[in-house]
Amino acid sequence: MAHATKKPRRWHIAVFLAPAVLIYTAIMIIPLFSTLQLALYSEVENSQIFVGLQNFRALFGDPQWSDQFWNALKNNTWFFIVHMIVQNPIGILLAALLSSPRLRLRSFYRTAIFIPTILSFVIAGFAWKLILSPLWGVAPNLLDLVGLKSLFQPWLGKEAYALTTLALISVWQFVGIPMMLIYAALLSIPDELLEAAECDGITGMSQFWKVKLPLILPAIGIISILTFVGNFNAFDLIYATQGALAGPDFSTDILGTFMFRTFFGFQLQLGDPNLGAAIATAMFAIILIGVSIYLFGIQRRLRRYQF
Question: In whole angstroms, what is the distance from residue 265 CA to residue 278 CA?
Answer without folding.
Answer: 15
